[in-house]
Specification:
This protein has 162 residues and is α/β, with parallel strands linked by helices. It has helices spanning 15-27, 47-57, 73-80, 92-108, 129-137, 148-157; strands at 3-8, 30-36, 64-69, 84-89, 114-119. It is built from six helices and five strands; from the N terminus they run βαβαβαβαβαα. The structure holds adenosine-5'-diphosphate (ADP).
């Protein structure tokens, strides 16, 4: 069975993330979407909230599992026995960071962990969690960017009552 890990911050998950998850799930037998508990970032949603959002959004995709992890991605890969990492590329601005990370993960894992990139679907190429949070802060229309239940959670977090 070929499994892949899709790690990320997912604060919160957007349709851009969901698109990558669905495409990866068409290729791999199992996709483990995993929320990174990054102590250096101050997220809007807690790890368990982000996990629950991903679980709800992927509940109809049987070969997707949602988890969280902290520490080194390569240690987590070893722990769950998966050596393929999936990431998304939106624009050249993503490239340098992603390349550095994948080279580092290959080195740290003695060349066991490979990273595979999905290019973004064009209509999501400008979509990011941070843009979504900025729009939500001013109660802007989120319908093209996140599922309705995520928009609701975002508005609530910024003090809007629906
Ligand atoms: P991280 O902090 O690990 O970059 P993100 O949640 O921002 O976490 O992103 C996780 C992954 O999803 C990254 O590989 C990112 O490039 C990718 N991604 C984010 N938004 C999109 C999008 N709109 N289209 C394609 N890939 C995306």
């Amino acid at each position: 069975m070929k499994s892949a890990i899709y790690p990320g911050t997912f604060d919160p998950m957007t349709y851009g993330h969901l698109d990558i998850i669905k495409r990866a799930a068409n290729i791999f037998d199992e996709v483990v979407v995993s929320v990174l508990n990054n102590k250096e970032k101050t997220p809007l949603f807690s790890v368990s909230e982000r996990v629950n959002i991903l679980k709800e959004a992927t509940k109809d995709i049987p070969n997707v599992r949602v988890e969280s992890f902290e520490g080194l991605l390569t240690d987590y890969c070893k722990k769950i026995g998966v050596n393929v990492v999936v990431r998304g590329l939106r624009a050249v601005t993503d490239f340098e960071y992603e390349l550095q990370m994948s080279q580092m993960n290959r080195k740290l894992s003695n060349h066991r962990v490979e990273t595979i990139y999905f290019n973004t679907t064009l209509k999501y190429s400008y979509l990011s969690s941070s843009a979504v949070k900025q729009i939500a802060q001013f109660h802007g229309d989120l319908s093209a960017f996140v599922p309705d239940f995520v928009a609701k959670l975002l508005y609530e977090r910024f003090g809007y009552k629906e």
